Amino acid sequence: MGGSAAEWIAAPVPEGTADLERVGLPRWMAVLLARRGVTDEIGARSFLVPSLDQLHDPFLLHGMDAAVERLLAARERNEKIAIVGDYDVDGVTATALLLAVLKHCGCTAVPIVPHRLREGYGFQPVHVERARAEGCSMIVTADCGSSAVGAVEEALAAGLAVVVTDHHLPGGELPAGTVHINPRQTACDYPFQDLAAAGLALKLCLAFARRCGRELDPAPLLRIACLGTIADLVPLRGENRVIAALGLEALATVRSAGLKALLQQAGVKAPYSAADVGFRIGPRINAAGRLHEAERALELLLSRDPKRSAELALELDSLNRDRQAEEARVVEEAFALFADRRPLPPILVGWSAEWHKGVVGIAAGRIAKELHRPTLLFAVEDGVAGGSGRSIHGLELHAFLLRWKERMIRFGGHAQAVGLTVHLEELEALRQEWEAAGAAWPADLLARRHEYELELAPNRLTAKLVAQLSRLEPFGMGNPRPLVRTGPLRLEGAPRLFGNGHLSGRARGEDGAPLDLVGWGWQERAAGLEGTFEALGWIEHDDYRGGPCLRLLDCRPAGNP
Known about the structure:
Elements: E1 7-10, H1 17-22, H2 27-35, H3 41-48, H4 64-76, E2 80-85, H5 89-104, E3 108-112, H6 125-133, E4 136-142, H7 149-157, E5 161-165, E6 179-181, H8 197-212, H9 218-231, H10 238-251, H11 257-266, H12 274-291, H13 295-302, H14 306-338, E7 348-352, H15 360-371, E8 375-381, E9 384-390, H16 397-401, E10 410-413, E11 417-423, H17 424-438, H18 443-446, E12 449-452, E13 454-455, H19 463-469, E14 484-491, E15 496-498, E16 502-508, E17 514-519, E18 532-542, E19 547-557
Parallel strand pairs: 1-12, 2-3, 2-4, 4-5, 5-6, 7-8, 13-14, 17-19
Antiparallel strand pairs: 8-9, 9-11, 10-11, 14-16, 14-18, 15-16, 16-17, 18-19
């Protein structure tokens, strides 16, 4: 099931472009930087050359000073600390950072990672019981807790200190006595709101080590923090860009047995990219929490034993293959659910007792991208529907669903991604109400469109351009790889089919300039490359051919407006 044809739209030129041109940047680079929020020469230098001195003082975060003081007291009294982290890449990497640095600074810390299938997302009373059973007197959360009023109340009533580190949108006021580190809370005026949980854990680690008088090599911390930052799809601007860029660079000199085994099993090599994390490394870490227990991934990140690391990396690889198969089945069945909806409703809601709770989120993301609709998918068990939602650009799903929070068992997340649990008997009525409310959205928000940033003749798509664009890496949310419009083109011979429905070929521009093309999953679209055509895609280095290549997004006959 595919979406309707997409409109091609040139991205607007920001007002600040001229100012950047005046400091010597070529116009196309000035335009790209201005679209990414860069306004002056200093900002351009910071964006193009990320460095540690661009990270803000961690003590600017509301609650940081109180958290460090409480951790120092725990160390002084030899108290045991429980780290309650989420089971995704961001939560696991944040937990790994806190465990490693707290132990390095002389604290006793143990991990408590929720089980996705048995317990679901977030900090819950059951984790308070687990912490007490471990003999802990303090709980530090990682990537959860901002909405966990009940669990925090129970922990405080039991005499446990609670430090919440989280970046999800707060779901209400936490009880008095809670130390809350979250740049999105109203009490916090930290200069950068978009840190991932791994970034917040990094901040807490740096602050605590500083107060302890312990020197920390930032490279090992950045290697772990960059994984959570990139995989959680936070905007790769500001501090996130620094963490991602320097962490990817540090991965080239990794010494950790666990990380080495993970990189080898993922089949990636230096220099590492955000795409390596997003499509190769991150999914293997995520697979443990999606289908089994996230402790496997946590153990791997902290492992110093090469043999055990290799075993764990192989296990995660196997789980990831299982995850891919399960995800593909859910996507196919979900598409079938929506196939007869004409016109498509403004928001897509589906559920099944046959779906695996661990993959409905990534399946919802696939469908939202393909059909250009906010999508909610639920796995049903024992009369309860546990679901995940993904949105599209311009529609904040968390804010939209918030008005129905009181009818949900649990709810939380970000503007573009949510997790929620509802009673099955409520779900049909909620679906109808969500569709009715979504009907008020402006039609242009739901229209499929491709906004391209560069329009260049085929002879401009060269290795030199690829090298120049590489200065903008790492690419990701908030800093996408620039989409290029080019043409007219004509194929030189028939395209070559390879793999599972992919194609490659060589085209030439009107002046005969060659341009290699690759279309992932484009076998069924090969007819669109007949005759003279224009193309939208991303220009990048092709390791197989050893030169520049346009990775296709869309094409249409030349001459269309």
